[in-house]
């Protein structure tokens, strides 16, 4: 695959959230406003690009038996970095993302890409892969967050929209599950008309034991 | 005593990890297919949460704080959790094989369960005392277990229900979760 393809695949074809069903926790938790969605997405993109870069550089150095702890430490390092940067430059966003900024560490998209891609590929494709996956994640977060913000608060990026009745429920946790469910159903519907998409499961670091993997079969049948 | 009940109610109901804080969604969707596996996962998470809370508290207050390197807490905590999970797995394998058999599959998944890391960070952010940290860990784990069990019941019905083709699988499960989350919203306000 050419470098451009490595970049493009994360955006749509192997979108980590909507197709791969990875990283569900931040997807649901912080998508209450579109701005949060973008902030979280870009923070994750930063960590993903950084960790993919370092891991692909160190792929011959890291012993296989302790690779998972090594990856986690590298990822946690980048997370600490973005935490400090965000705290210094955009304290408002830092506050609204809260704990979930630290929790980027255990986002399975990042571990998954490290394991599947960065540990086997050269530096440039790894960085592009991280960038594509990160931007794909950002786009889906922003999409979900926009839907929730428009329906729940009647605003988009804080701007007032002429929405007749706002339904607060969409901002609340229950609305998160609901909107994500509907969007995935919609993606399933579109994907049916295209060649089958294969992403996610086999590559996830959890060896097919996490939610995404088990459910995927059911979703595609 | 008042804080004791406030923390307990918050951890179990109003601020439930899965349905309100959205932590641990992966295991919630993954292992809630059967009641028995929900029980196993819930028990393993509760156990690791309590142990992790007990270890991270002294590490934070006795090592990170005096050295003024509290910004390293994410790295320190995830390492502790990863080590701990490994330790528990090895110890259980040698000492209590039956328990290992019951929980074994779920243990490696716990390292990447954001509920555990989230809990240890929340304990520090909320400035809980040692005792309250442990209590919060225990009841958060119990709340996690309870929701997993409840949802496994809901799910066995959803799987058999006749849902539209596009909603089969994950979407239907997520919408069922939305309804369960809605019912937990009814608890908000108590104990606060």
**What class, by secondary structure content of chain B?**
mainly alpha
Sheet having the most strands of chain A = 2 strands, antiparallel
What amount of the residues of chain B lies in strands? Answer: under 5%
**Beta-strand residue fraction of chain A:** under 5%
Radius of gyration from the alpha-carbon trace of chain A, in angstroms: 17 Å
Short description:
Chain A has 221 residues and is mainly alpha-helical.
Could you outline the blueprint of secondary structure elements for this entry?
The complex is a heterodimer of chains A (221) and B (192).
Chain A: H1 3-11, H2 24-29, H3 34-57, H4 67-89, H5 91-97, H6 99-102, H7 108-118, H8 123-153, E1 155-156, E2 159-160, H9 173-192, H10 211-220
Antiparallel strand pairs in A: 1-2
Helix pairs in contact in A: 1-8, 3-4, 3-7, 3-8, 4-5, 4-7, 7-8
Chain B: H1 2-14, H2 25-30, H3 35-64, H4 73-95, H5 97-103, H6 107-111, H7 114-125, H8 130-160, H9 170-185
Helix pairs in contact in B: 1-8, 3-4, 3-7, 3-8, 4-5, 4-7, 7-8, 8-9
Give your account of this protein's structure.
The complex is a heterodimer of chains A (221) and B (192). By secondary structure, chain A is mainly alpha-helical. Chain A has one domain. Helix content of chain A is 66%, strand content 2%. Chain A contains 10 helices and 2 strands, in the order H-H-H-H-H-H-H-H-E-E-H-H. In chain A, strands 1-2 form a two-stranded antiparallel ribbon. In chain A, a hairpin with a 2-residue loop joins strand 1 (155-156) and strand 2 (159-160). The longest helix of chain A is centred in the middle third of the chain and has 31 residues, at 123-153. Chain B is mainly alpha-helical and 192 residues long. Chain B has one domain. In chain B, 74% of the residues lie in helices and 0% in strands. Chain B is globular, with a radius of gyration of 18 Å. Chain B starts with a helix and ends in a 7-residue tail after the last helix. The mean pLDDT of chain B is 83. Classes of the chains: A mainly alpha (221), B mainly alpha (192). At the A-B interface, helix 2, helix 4, helix 9 and helix 10 of A face helix 2, helix 4, helix 6, helix 7 and helix 9 of B.
